[in-house]
């Protein structure tokens, strides 16, 4: 595998004899069988990223709960589950996926700012390990649901530490103006209240300040506040046995250099090592981001008055990150060549100017029909895709060594249309 830093490093993807491969399989061979666009993941990449967390935290009492929202295919969750991972879920759908993929309920954490009573009830029925509560009304509702079921809900309170994660505004969650968590100043009162509730078993505190953090400083600030809070609560007679540290590190999409996991783990140990608490970590992006790519074909090359456009068969409905967050994804030809790079706008066929993967990107000239790979697409790619413009959901493929499996077939047009129902007044010829 490529050793240079960047999106290919440790991803499971590398060029062999000029052909981009996922482990032992050429992407061009998968494209010939599956047809573009499709997502492709490398098992070696997924496992390597998980093992890096497991190794970094081997000497701490920590459970790595894969944040299912990053990529929720059962085969991806199952790959981590087989290695002993837990899961962080944010909806009943994700909880059902984690269970179906073989994650034991004792290793599942339910996060999220707006759980419904039905979701709470379902979670409690499964015997879930932990529910992270984000407000007093949510605590009251969970208590009522648990009492009605004659259960006690294992609860962590999510703290809003008012820390700037120094990441994209749309994925920053730890400032007081963000909708997430309970303000740090209110935690003691809420914890006391939780400890007195018949349906609540108060276990500890959770924090998650944002995603794609490439600097340890905001983590250090938030975790230090959390450790101080633990000491203050204990001094106040409130017992707590565990902490949930939220999402993982950011990844290299381009030339970012996120800190080594060993440094992150050492920081965590330095701050919490003496508190005698069990830890949960909820990494998503860093487990799957660089272990997945989106493979597309060039549909057309259009020479505009001021721009050259490379029009792909993939679009914003398949991968929305560039449109939504102005995110940079590396785009590479699947078959490398020594052609001189020229600036090009890489776009999809959807009827919006926002359907742009890259603007004035330096790329070797790509011919119609040629394959390109959009890198670092494993996290928040397929999971955020939609059928906008009535484009069927694209296949997902998982490679392992020299074999591969389609882990989600392409949605057919029949399936796409079968989602809709005509009301009687349109369906009944008598009434039209
Ligand atoms: N835990 C909680 C409570 C979260 O809200 C998240 C992500 C994670 C864990 C996982 O964080 P990670 O390890 O992936 O940084 N769609 C956006 C990212 C949204 C992140 C939402 N929460 C994107 O494509 O950049």
Which labels suit this protein?
432 residues; alpha/beta; Lyase, Ornithine Decarboxylase, Chain A, domain 1; TIM Barrel; nine-stranded mixed β-sheet; eight-stranded parallel barrel; binds ligand LLP
Describe this structure in words.
This protein is an alpha/beta fold and 432 residues long. It contains 13 helices and 21 strands. Strands 4, 14, 15, 16, 17, 18, 19, 20 and 21 form a nine-stranded mixed β-sheet that branches. It has an eight-stranded parallel beta barrel with strand order 5-6-7-8-9-11-12-13, surrounded by five helices. It has a three-stranded antiparallel β-sheet with strand order 1-2-3. A hairpin with a 2-residue loop joins β2 (19-22) and β3. 46% of the residues are buried. Residues 67, 70, 88, 111, 171, 208, 211-212, 246-248, 282-286, 321, 325, 380 line the site of ligand LLP.
Can you name the CATH architecture of the largest domain?
Answer: Alpha-Beta Barrel
CATH class of the largest domain: Alpha Beta
Task: Catalogue the unreliable spans.
Answer: none
The beta-strand count equals 21
- Report the major sheet: 9 strands, mixed
Beta-sheet strand percentage? Answer: 15-25%
Ligands in the structure?
A: ligand LLP
In the CATH scheme, what's the topology name of the largest domain?
TIM Barrel
Q: What does the overall shape look like? A: globular
Mean pLDDT level: 96
Annotation field: number of helices: 13
CATH superfamily of the largest domain: Alanine racemase
N- to C-terminal distance? 63 Å
The gyration radius over C-alpha positions equals 23 Å
Structural class, from secondary structure content?
A: alpha/beta
- The helical percent reads 25-40%
């Amino acid at each position: 595998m490529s050793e240079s830093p960047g999106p290919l490093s440790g991803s499971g993807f590398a060029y062999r004899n000029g052909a981009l491969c996922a482990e032992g399989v050429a992407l061009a061979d998968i494209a010939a069988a599956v047809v573009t666009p499709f997502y492709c993941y490398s098992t070696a990449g997924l496992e390597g990223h998980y093992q890096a967390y497991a190794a970094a935290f081997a000497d701490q009492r920590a459970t790595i709960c894969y944040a299912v929202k990053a990529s929720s295919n059962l085969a991806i969750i199952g790959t981590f589950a087989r290695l002993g991972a837990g899961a962080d879920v944010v909806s009943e759908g994700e909880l059902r996926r984690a269970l179906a993929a073989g994650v034991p309920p004792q290793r599942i954490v339910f996060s999220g700012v707006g759980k419904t009573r039905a979701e709470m009830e379902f979670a409690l029925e499964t015997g879930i390990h932990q529910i992270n509560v984000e407000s007093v009304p949510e605590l009251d509702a969970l208590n009522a649901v648990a009492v009605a079921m004659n259960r006690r809900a294992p609860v962590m309170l999510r703290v809003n530490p008012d820390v700037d994660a120094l990441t994209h505004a749309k994925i920053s969650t730890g400032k007081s103006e963000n909708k997430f968590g309970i303000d740090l100043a209110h935690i003691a009162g809420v914890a006391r209240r939780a400890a007195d509730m018949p349906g609540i078993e108060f276990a500890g505190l959770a924090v998650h300040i944002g995603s794609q953090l490439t600097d340890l400083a905001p983590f250090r600030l938030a975790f230090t506040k959390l450790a101080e809070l633990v000491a203050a609560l204990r001094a106040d007679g409130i017992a707590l046995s565990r902490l949930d540290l939220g999402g993982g590190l950011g990844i290299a999409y381009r030339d970012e250099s996120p800190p080594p996991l060993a440094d992150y783990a050492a920081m965590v140990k330095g701050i919490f090592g003496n508190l005698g608490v069990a830890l949960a970590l909820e990494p998503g992006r860093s487990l799957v981001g660089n272990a997945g790519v989106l493979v597309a074909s060039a549909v057309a090359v259009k020479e505009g008055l001021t721009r050259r456009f490379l029009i792909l068969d993939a679009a914003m409905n398949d991968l929305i990150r560039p449109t939504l967050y102005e995110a940079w994804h590396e785009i590479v030809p699947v078959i490398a060549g020594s052609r001189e790079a020229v600036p090009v706008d890489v776009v999809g066929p959807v009827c919006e100017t926002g359907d742009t993967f890259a603007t004035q990107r330096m790329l070797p000239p790509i011919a119609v029909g040629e394959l390109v790979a959009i890198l670092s697409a494993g996290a928040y790619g397929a999971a955020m895709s939609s059928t906008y413009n009535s484009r069927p959901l694209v296949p997902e493929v998982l490679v392992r060594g020299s074999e591969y499996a389609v882990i989600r077939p392409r949605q057919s047009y029949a399936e796409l249309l079968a989602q809709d129902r005509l009301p009687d007044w349109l369906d009944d010829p008598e009434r039209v």
